[in-house]
Amino acid sequence: HDHYKWRAMRANGIPESHITGSASPKEKFRAWAETIPNSLRNPLYDWTHLELRRCFGIDTLLSPQTADEIWEGCNERLKDEDFSAQGLLSKFRVDAVGTTDDPTDNLSHHETANASDCPTKIYPTFRPDKAFFVDRPSLLNPWLNQLGENIITFADFLSALKARHDYFHEKGCRLTDHGMRYALSNPCKESEADQILAKVREGQAANPEETDAFGALIMYHLGQWVSETDWTMQLHLGPRRNPNTRLFQKIGPDSGFDTIGDWPQGEALLSFLDSLSKINKLPKTIVYNLNPRDNAVLAAACGSFQEAPIRGKIQFGSGWWFNDTLQGMESQINTLSAIGLLSHFVGMLTDSRSFLSFPRHEYFRRLLCNLVGQDVEDGKLPNDERLISTMVGNICYHNAEAYFGLPHHSEDLLA
Fold this sequence. Notes:
The chain is an alpha/beta fold. The protein folds into 2 domains: 1-83, uronate isomerase, domain 2, chain A (Orthogonal Bundle), CATH 1.10.2020.10; 100-346, TIM Barrel, CATH 3.20.20.140. It contains 16 helices and 8 strands. The strands form 3 sheets. A 4-stranded parallel beta sheet has the order 3-4-7-8, covered by helices on one side. Helix 9 (190-201) packs across helix 10 (208-228). The longest helix is centred in the middle third of the chain and has 21 residues, at 208-228. The two termini are 34 Å apart.
């Protein structure tokens, strides 16, 4: 399930049957092999060949002519005992993994994994997207019935959500994640939230204004919980979901039809951060933008809320989704360098549904080193190996380790 690949395959004229449809896995792989030679200068080309090399030990370029050979080679490699999920985590020396989890999820798999002899620690991430679906009663109401019993008022709803937040904390969760068009910063009153929820429980959808106001009230409370438990809040701002109505109805969400939204971001984000700062409950926060035009606006907004003792408390996050490219990540790094402190950046995340996506960290580290190394060559940075290597090592590992407060499992990880 990789919507990046699906978009490229559609652009290459591949029929949907060979993307998300009924074609066999091998036929779909051949269709991808037909697409990949046409993806030059797209990160998919680099990611694909890094995955083949680092995961499967295959240096052959993928093409229609090599597809069957690579298919057979990969399947042979998959038979190896060390090619299990834990084997790959060990191979890439992964210290910690954060999964994305709904508040109603049972986290028993995390407990099982962490009780095993796998050196990698698996942490859940609290992603309460469905809590905001007051405009979609058919989705929200069944979810509320899973979340807790007899949820009638907003206080009931908040209590049930807080109970799940506390449960996630007990299981090691230290991050939330929120995908939204823009920061929600104009909350309704609790009495108004009661009215909205009562209407939704009867099957009536909230209007757009009510949906934003209800969501803003949730975010105001969630932000306080995140601060009180020393978690980190992640805000992914700007996606325009499902603009292609016909194909969305035919294939479903998260299938490669989402795009970059065109909403203003700055004022809403400033208002949201300020609402929590006013009550001294602003948590560690990472802000990711989907529209690259917002780089400077959001990087500067983050700088307005920095506060001791945490270095880089409010982070301008790594290039995300459509910005998860050479140009996009270089632009994010350059903007952060100019407006903030690159040295305190917590670096890259895979942001992927693919278990083989760990080479994306290598992709990021290579472009980071290219940028910094070129600055040294040009005389813009001092030719001081200790100074430069300390900064790069911090960005690639140590800053995230300190920022998230996750335990360190492998003293020689970077040796």
